[in-house]
Amino acid sequence: QVQLVESGGGLVQAGGSLSLSCAASGGTFRYYAMGWFRQAPGKEREFVAAIDMTAVSTWHADSVKGRFTISRDNAPNTVYLQMNSLKPEDTAVYYCAAAPIISRVVDRYNYWGQGTQVTVSS
Fold first, then answer.
1. What residues does 23 pair with on adjacent strands?
2. In this prediction, what percent of the chain has a pLDDT beyond 70?
3. In whole angstroms, what is the distance from residue 19 CA to residue 30 CA?
4. pLDDT given at position 27
5. Cβ distance 96 to 23 under 8 Å?
6. Which residue in 22, 34, 64, 88 is a FRET match for 75, CA 20 to 30 A apart?
7. How far apart are CA 21 and CA 106, in angstroms?
8. pLDDT over 90 (residue 56)
C-alpha cells in the first residue's frame, strides 16, 4: 500500500511558476511509475505528466509541454512537477498517482494522493 501526499499548490499570477511535490510512503517507491493529473471544476481528470520508475522516460501532455517538467528522486521517495509560464487554464486540483507501469490513463494508476489546488489568476 502506497500513501501519497501532494504539496506546493497555491495562487499565482499568469506567467508565474509553482513547484509541486508528492511524497510517497508505505511501499517501494522505486518500483512504481508516477504520474501527475489534474481536474478542473466540471471537467474530467486529465493526464499532465508521467515518469517511469528509472526516470529514463518522461511523458508530458501537449498542453503543458515546454512549460511543465516532471522529475523524481527515489531517495527521498518524491516526485516533482515544476510548472512555469502558468496560464489561467492550468487552474485545477493536481493529483499525483502511482502505477506499475508508465501510462497516460487514469485507470492504470492504483494509488492517488488527496490533491493540491493550483489557481492561476489572469
1. 5, 78
2. 100
3. 21
4. 78
5. no
6. 64
7. 19
8. yes
Q: Burial of 107 by CB count in 10 Å (0-12 exposed, 13-18 middle, 19+ buried)?
A: exposed
The C-alpha cell at 59 is 511523458
Q: What is the pLDDT of residue 76?
A: 85
pLDDT(19) > 90: yes
**Residue with grid cell 522505486, as numbered in its chain:** 30
DSSP secondary structure code for residue 101 in this structure: S
Q: From CA 86, how far away is CA 88, in angstroms rounded?
A: 7
* Side chain identity, residue 104: R
CA atoms of 74 and 79, how far apart (whole Å): 8
CA–CA separation, 67 and 102 (whole Å): 20
Give 91's contacts (C-beta < 8 A, 6+ positions apart): 40, 118, 119, 120
Place of cell 501537449: 62
pLDDT band at 40, cuts 50/70/90?
A: very high
